[in-house]
Amino acid sequence: MTSVALAFSGGLDTTVCVSLLKEEYGYDEVVGVTVDVGQPESEFEEAKETADAHGLDLHVVDAKDEFAELCFDSVRANATYQGYPLGTALARPVIANAILDVAKEEGCDALAHGCTGKGNDQLRFETVWRASDLDVVAPVREMGLTREWEKQYADEKGLPVQSGNDGVWSIDTNLWSRSIEGGELEDPSHVPPEDIYEWTETPQGETGTVDIEFENGYPVAVDGEEMDPAALIEHLNELAGQYGVGRTDMMEDRMLGLKVRENYEHPAATTLLTAHEALEQLVLTKEERDFKAQVDQQWSNKGYQGLVDAPIVKALEGFIAETQTRVTGKVTIKFDGGRARPVARESDFSVYSEEAASFNTKTVGDITQEDATGVAKYHGFQSRLANAAYENATKDKPGLATDGGDDVAEETSAGGQTQSGDEE
Ligand code: ARG
């Protein structure tokens, strides 16, 4: 008896995979695994219904809290990829690990996903799975299936398919973001219809504010109320979503080099990332901020690749953790016209000194305004030296004229004239 654990969502791809794994791949048993990373309740119901109709043994694993914690790690890294807050990307390693655990418990021989050969998710799943000694199978990729083919196959076999949008859009939802792709959205010039959005209202001009409190860079409370990570994210998705905050319509560069048009909704992520960065502006030094921007970018790239377990991520997080010891405080965010922007921030660790910055104070400690005169004299000194030396060295040498650009331009236009003269 051979068995395979399948990443199962109840959507078109994975539903078709259940049959294919038996009929084409010859597995005797398919164990479906749905991992809860904060999808809406309806998705689990659909997955269960579809599984029942298939006679599929379905395991539902709750990984919501683990995923929420990873989302908060990403906040400390101000993590976005080309503007997208990484919901799908960060969820994949969590899902892959949960499926691997079930597969081991159930004594499965193999692991399967329903990803195509074009996307990122195949890579994110398999990097986790290939660390085990189980086989990895990817029917949609290996059989070169299209969505059209799948729809027809599902029809012929009478397979129940996720009813929601009749398979028009390919949707991936978790706590951190909702992604909508496929159908007409594949044309980048096609304006998305309003009905692709479920988390965000069309901004109507109302405004609102929210206070976010952080401890060591982790969000801990909203409007004075302490909440667990998952609850805090859900609460903010609801709240910020009402103001239409957190829509992204972008061209995304996938790992394999393809560009794709992606639409996302992520109200909580946008709010928390904006607030976190605003607090860092207050408490971190310029050098820390400059260097951290590079660290954050590296973290984000690894997050996008599904490689949050890479050794470098631990190393990056060492730096991040050190900086976050002072990222404790409160930020007020204003929701306005579909945007979230910081309008107030406070922290015991604030580097800002009103006394130092104010126009109304003469001295800071024993430093006076006049002390800046020496600094101002030296500022740019080396550039002035270099410019003067160049001027001097090229003064009597026309061939080395200061602005060589003009010479080139003259030559080109002269050449052009000769040519047109020749033709005449
Ligand atoms: N392109 C995104 C990523 O790689 C999200 C893909 C989500 N999948 C979907 N079927 N909507 O992270």
UniProtKB/TrEMBL annotation:
Domain Arginosuccinate synthase C-terminal: 169-385
GO biological process: L-arginine biosynthetic process
EC class (word): ligase
Pathway stated in the Swiss-Prot or TrEMBL entry: Amino-acid biosynthesis; L-arginine biosynthesis; L-arginine from L-ornithine and carbamoyl phosphate: step 2/3
First-listed, main subcellular location of the protein, grouped into a coarse class: cytoplasm
Binding site for L-citrulline: 84, 120, 124, 170, 179, 252, 264
Protein name: Argininosuccinate synthase
Organism name: Halopelagius fulvigenes
